[in-house]
């Protein structure tokens, strides 16, 4: 009952503070992941959820006291109706002075206590800092997708692992997160794991994230950034440390060799000829090394579960629609329509599906 009530309140609050999930979230086959901040799966989210519980129950207690007091006063007033009506105005009596004193000081005390809890939460979220040898996740917000780069401990300069819209986390490890943006301000938020942190062009913000439970979590952009702000999602998968290492190693490799597959080779040619490679990097296949990626890095595209920043499952049908006319799926994103014949589309899809 209590959890049902809490989730009702959370949905109510969520409806106001979180962009509503677009219809695509109900799409068959689309992995959604946990995104309830009241069902925390990491220490930061746990702390926030605890603060929320305190604020909620303090508010409920005060509400009950105030409304209860009001009803008691009304009842008494009705009993003394005649007497009250006849009473002339006069200076506050001693009892009334006490009411005024309490009215000023009790709220001040409650606010001070709540402030104390809030400061405690902020303190926990701010530290302790990740260990010096912690893994670093660099987040770059783009209109309307997320670029993720991983730096292993001690690694500096250009990251070996660059991916988009999907990230993995080793369970139980605190990861340093460095955030920036390429265009406007966005905000990185995985509700079940941590609080929000803005990504700001020209500035690097830092915080940390940790998942304590294996699972799939959904992240969203929490700062209005343009027409597709509500469709700027990502997935965060928390896996055991060994699986994470394997994933990281696989992501660091160059794109798969497609030479044995004629259709994919043709697709690779088209990818370079039709301008795809001007915005999308496929490490080992494209000639440009894009410094400030305009579009997501596609080196291991086929290993991703979603396309269009978490909005569609990565299936042949959705991918065809996206490649041919991305504007029809997410109006206002930077990807222009690509004009391909049926045979060319087949080749392009074969190529993209080969990028495991
Ligand atoms: Cu990016 Cu809102």
Query: How large is the share of residues in beta strands?
Result: 15-25%
Strand count: 12
Alpha plus pi helix count: 10
H-E order: HHHHEEEEEEEEEEHHHEEHHH
What is the residue-averaged pLDDT?
A: 88
**Ligand kinds:** dinuclear copper ion
CA gyration radius, whole angstroms: 27 Å
Helix coverage percent of residues? 40-55%
Structural class, by secondary structure, is alpha+beta
Task: Name the overall outline.
Answer: elongated
Low-confidence stretches: 15-20
Largest sheet: 5 strands, mixed
Tell me the span between the first and last alpha carbons: 45 Å
What does it look like?
This protein has 356 residues and is of the alpha+beta class. The protein is 41% helix and 17% strand. The chain is built from ten helices and twelve strands. The protein has a five-stranded mixed sheet. A five-stranded mixed sheet has the order 4-10-9-6-7, covered by helices on one side. Strands 11-12 form a two-stranded antiparallel sheet. A hairpin with a 4-residue loop joins β11 and β12. α2 runs antiparallel to α4 and α6 crosses α10. The chain binds dinuclear copper ion. The site of dinuclear copper ion has 9 residues, from loops.
């Amino acid at each position: 009952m209590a959890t049902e009530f809490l989730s009702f309140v959370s949905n109510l609050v969520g409806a106001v503070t979180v962009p509503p999930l677009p219809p695509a979230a109900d799409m068959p086959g689309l992995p959604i992941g946990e995104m309830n901040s009241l069902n925390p799966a990491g220490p930061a989210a746990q702390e926030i959820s605890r603060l929320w519980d305190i604020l909620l129950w303090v508010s409920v207690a005060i509400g009950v006291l105030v409304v209860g007091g009001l009803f008691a006063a009304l009842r008494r007033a009705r009993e003394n109706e005649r007497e009250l009506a006849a009473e002339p105005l006069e200076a506050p009596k001693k009892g009334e002075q006490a009411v005024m004193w309490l009215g000023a000081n009790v709220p001040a005390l409650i606010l001070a206590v709540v402030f104390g809890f809030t400061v405690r939460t902020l303190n926990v979220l701010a530290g302790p800092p990740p260990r010096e040898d912690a893994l670093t996740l660099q987040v770059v917000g783009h209109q309307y997708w997320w670029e993720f780069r991983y730096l292993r401990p001690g690694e500096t300069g250009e990251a070996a692992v660059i991916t988009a819209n999907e990230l993995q986390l080793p369970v139980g490890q605190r990861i340093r997160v460095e955030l920036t943006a390429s265009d406007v301000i966005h905000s990185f938020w995985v509700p079940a794991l941590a609080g929000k942190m803005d990504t700001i062009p020209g500035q690097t913000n830092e915080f940390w994230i940790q998942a304590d439970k294996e699972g799939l979590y959904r992240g969203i952009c929490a700062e209005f950034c343009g027409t597709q702000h509500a469709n700027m999602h990502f997935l965060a998968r928390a896996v055991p440390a060994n699986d994470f290492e394997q994933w990281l190693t696989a992501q660091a490799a160059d794109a798969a060799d497609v030479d044995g597959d004629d259709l994919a080779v043709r697709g690779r040619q088209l990818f370079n000829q039709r301008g795809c490679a001007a915005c999308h990097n496929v490490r080992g296949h494209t000639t440009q090394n894009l410094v400030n990626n305009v579009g997501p890095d596609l080196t291991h595209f086929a290993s991703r579960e979603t396309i269009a920043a978490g909005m569609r499952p990565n299936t042949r049908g959705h991918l065809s629609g996206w490649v041919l006319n991305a504007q029809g799926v997410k109006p206002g994103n930077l990807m222009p329509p690509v004009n391909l014949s049926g045979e060319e589309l087949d080749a392009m899809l074969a190529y993209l599906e080969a990028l495991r």
